[in-house]
Amino acid sequence: MLDPISIGAAVSLCSSAVAGVKKAIETGKQAHECGTELAKWAGAMSDINHVAHKHKTNDIPWWRKMSGSVEAEAIEAFAAQKQAQALRKELEEWISLYWGPSQLKELVRLEGEIRKQRKDQLYRRQEAIEKAVTMAVTFTIVIIGGSLLGGVIYMIGDARGKW
């Protein structure tokens, strides 16, 4: 999952991509000449929405919840999502006004493709890493807890002379 720094970077990338597209429109470029900027925008939007969705559905590993920063991350993700939605609206208005509704439909299609690709590749890998870390942390805690419990039982038995 993206950390707060990455969420801020995604918002910044989204903002700079929108500014780049607006500048390209002002200089008379066509939609196909802004493919890189639009792809960056769609990727950043996907990241922001993914993080916000994970916090909204409370799909956070238990060990991250114990860190105490999850609430702050959720608020930051919510704010980032709202800012990204405002940037989306601005970009859609510019594209629709200067390039027409057909290009806006193409943008929505492109965004959907990028979201699907990122879900299939990046987000699944991140979730697998989170699951592995969760299993490792849980296993470590169980081993340490069992060792401590065994040690206490042994000490009690030794103090009573039963060993």
How many runs of DSSP E, i.e. beta strands? 0
Helix content: over 70%
- The SSE string, one letter per element, is HHHHH
Count of folded domains: 1
Beta strand %? under 5%
- Cα distance spanning the termini: 50 Å
Q: What is the average of the pLDDT values?
A: 86
Look at the helices and sheets and give the structural class.
Answer: mainly alpha
How many individual helices?
Answer: 5
Report the sheet with the most strands, covering strand number, pairing sense and barrel closure: none
Shape: rod-shaped
Q: Spans of 5+ residues with little confidence (pLDDT < 50)? A: none
* Rg result: 24 Å
Structural commentary:
The chain is mainly alpha-helical and 163 residues long. It has one domain. It has helices spanning 4-26, 35-56, 62-65, 70-98, 101-159. Helix 1 (4-26) packs antiparallel against helix 2 (35-56), helix 1 runs parallel beside helix 4 and helix 2 runs antiparallel to helix 4 (70-98). The longest helix is centred in the last third of the chain and has 59 residues, at 101-159. It is rod-shaped and about 90 Å long. The termini are far apart. The model has no long low-confidence stretch (mean pLDDT 86).
